[in-house]
Amino acid sequence: MNRACLLSTAYLAPVQYYAKLFSYTESYVEMHEHYVKQTYRNRCLIASPSGVQPLTVPVVKPSADKCPVKDIRISDHGDWRRLHWNALDAAYRNSPFFEYYADDFLPFYTRRWDFLVDFNEAIRMKVCELMDLHPKVSQTASYGLTEGCGGAPAVASDDFRTLISPKVPVETDAAFVPCHYYQVFGQRHGFLPNLSIADLLFNMGPEALLVLRESVRKTE
Q1: Cα–Cα distance between 185 and 189 in angstroms, integer?
Q2: Exposed, middle or buried by CB within 10 Å (0-12, 13-18, 19+), for 174?
Q3: Do the Cβ atoms of 153 and 113 come closer than 8 Å?
Q4: 150-158 long-range CB contacts below 8 Å, 24 or more apart?
Q5: CA 81, 83, 89, 92 torsion: positive or negative?
Q6: Taking 70 as the threshold, does the pLDDT of residue 219 lie above it?
Q7: What is the mean pLDDT of the chain?
Q8: Burial of 200 by CB count in 10 Å (0-12 exposed, 13-18 middle, 19+ buried)?
Q9: What is the pTM of this model?
Q10: Distance CA 43, CA 108 (A)
């Protein structure tokens, strides 16, 4: 049975997000919602020496109160690219696979993207390539709607646009169970679940896909 899900755009999305890309036949990224602050749309969580560390991509504040996420531009304020790369390096330089993947990630912090959704999608495609994950991903035709048979609007079977959020406990998602894996600072902090996919990739390398598979809980 074909199953489709709705996802928000996301910056270095959490493991939970990639578990959906792994488990659904099709995934649709919402392009027409109003931009929401303090979400994974422009924020990711990594495991630093001092614990969980958020990294936030600054965006240009739109003139209107409500702006479609597809129109949100990335700001160059605060030298954030260098800061993010330095944070990733400090967090994962001693991980098993950081050196192996570093050259694949570095261009995202040296090249300029205008729009947040384009930047996020470029990272998503690269991560999927590195993980040998081949999801079918499209963009919504309008708010909450995908393109069904014959081009007619359709609704995806499962909506994770608000469920996958740093403000929503991961236990709320009955179809996702964080699978423990090696983390550089695991002995110091214990296992930190549902961090950015970068954490899983730098720590587990080719085995990241196996972790995704084990993170998917079968539901009726």
Answers
A1: 6
A2: exposed
A3: no
A4: 154/4, 156/4, 156/5, 156/6, 156/26, 156/28, 157/3, 157/4, 157/5, 158/3, 158/4, 158/5, 158/6, 158/24
A5: negative
A6: no
A7: 91
A8: buried
A9: 0.93
A10: 15
